Amino acid sequence: MACFIVPGAEAIVVTAAALILKQREAKKAALPQPTGVPAGSVQSEAKQGFSRKLFWLAGLLWGGVVLLAFEHLWHGEVQPFFPFLTAATEGAGAVAEMLSEMASVGVTMAVLVTAVWAVMLVVSRSIEKRPAAKAEAQA
Fold first, then answer.
1. Which residue in 6, 42, 56, 87 could disulfide with 131, CB within 3.0 to 4.6 Å?
2. CA 106, CA 112: separation in Å to the nearest integer?
């Protein structure tokens, strides 16, 4: 019924954090860079900012939320008018059931999506290291 609310709340927090981090990265990029990695080198272009990787997580979460909300709408568990969740009109027992579902299914889905994103980060890091290793081997 309401399992998509937990990943939705995580998606809101992650999106806000990514936007704040993107602004900080933009300010940092505007400052003069110390000598080290040249601006046009392979290593500087292969590495992505962490805000972009947070947007990956936000995209995964928002996509799941939209699909789950549509599925619940399709099955008549969500309605486009107040109180939105049809179980909320059925009494106190239904509210307890919704909270239980959010605590079990919603949290599990949010953790699973975050774990998939963590695997994506590991793969991304290994891909980012390849151009630097190739450049060092050629030099």
1. 42
2. 10
- Read off the tokens for 55: 């947007």
Amino acid at 23: Q
Q: Where are the domains of the chain?
A: 5-28+47-138
Amino acid at 9: A
> Which alpha helices (DSSP H) does the chain contain, by range?
5-30, 42-46, 50-74, 92-101, 107-138
- Record the tokens describing residue 135, joined without a space: 């450049």
C-alpha distances (whole Å) from 100 to each of 41, 55, 109, 112 are 52, 29, 14, 18
**pLDDT-derived band of residue 43, with 50, 70 and 90 as boundaries?**
very low
